[in-house]
Every structure is written in C-alpha cells, then in structure tokens.
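Prompt: May I have another protein with tokenized structure?
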Amino acid sequence: MIPRTLLAMAAVLLVVPAAAAQNHDPDHAVKGGAFPPGWSGRTDRGQPLDNVSFRAMGPGLHVTLGPASILYREADNATGSYEVSATITQTKAPTHPEAYGLFIGGKDLGGDGQAYTYFLIRGNGEFLVKRRAGAQTSDVAAWTANGAVKAQDEAGKATNILTVAVGPDRVRFLVNGTEVHSTPRSAVDADGIAGLRVNHNLDLHVDGFGVKKGT
C-alpha cells in the first residue's frame, strides 16, 4: 500500500511541470501603435491592443505580437464565390511552433458572438482549419503535416502563400498552390469578413493580402 502522503506528493509533482509549461512563454511586451488605415484588431482574451504592432512596411504589412490576435478590414466582406490569399513570411523563430494564417466568414468580430473559420500553418510544416463561435472553437481539420507547407529554416524563417478559395458548394484550402484540404461550404463560415489570424509572440511580414470576389 502506497502512503497517502506519497500519492499527494506525486500529484503535486505532476501538476507543477504542467503549470510551468503554461507559463514559460508569456505574451511579449510589444510597442504597439496606430494600425494602417481601415484595419481593426481583436485579441483572443480581451487583452489591450497596446502589445500588437501592425503597420505598413514597403508594399506589405508587418505584424509583431504580443497576444494572439485577428486583424481585419470591414471592407473585406465577401459572400458568394471569392478567394482570399496572402504571402506570409515568418521572420523569426518562436519559442515553440506558433500558428498564423487567414480567416474567412467573420461576423460580430468586436462582440461576444464573434464567429469565423481560420486556416493556419506553423513552422513545423503543419496546417489546421478551425471554427470559432463565441468563446468556443472546433476543428474542421486537425493539425496535419503536409509537404506543401514550407517549414521554418535554421534561422526560424519560412515563406508560404496561403489561399482560401470559396466556391458555391465547397471551400478549398491551399498552401503554395497545392490543395491541403477541401470541405463542403456548409461545414465552415463562408460569408463574412476575411482577415489575418496570428498567434502570440510571432513576427511576420504579409504581402499581397487581398480578397478577390466572384472567382
């Protein structure tokens, strides 16, 4: 029979590493500022946007975080058939693989009923498709490795072209021109605002973000 005191000590030893793992990579302090004209943002857990730097840089946009966030323009509201695309470069290696990419079908993005579907990749060569409804999220396609996703190099850099092609009946998710997932339109949020989703503590450069309607 194992004494209860030893069992209690073992339980504490299991909990402490788990708690430490959750706290070892806190959100970075970032000097934020004014967003490019027309752009808005929202963090995942209601943190202020002070630690979100999002600015025009050359012909593109540069994002440095802070807390995980979505970035969007009300003008990028699409229905019917359309295509969203961007070339995204991870410029620095995060502490552990962090995800970034596009979202579509955004509604009530500033409110409690926020909803959208997001398509992300991360530096280990995996992709994810997921839906958000308020505070809840659910997988459309769980994290999956795919050779189309360029993994980060030894310096932590990687450049990938992400595209979401929304058709009348299906939605296709592509990386560097290769389809990595396809799903019925009814399985995702298709009509609404499109934008960028970036997880915490990432430094990214975004080129060519845009919504092409009627594709």
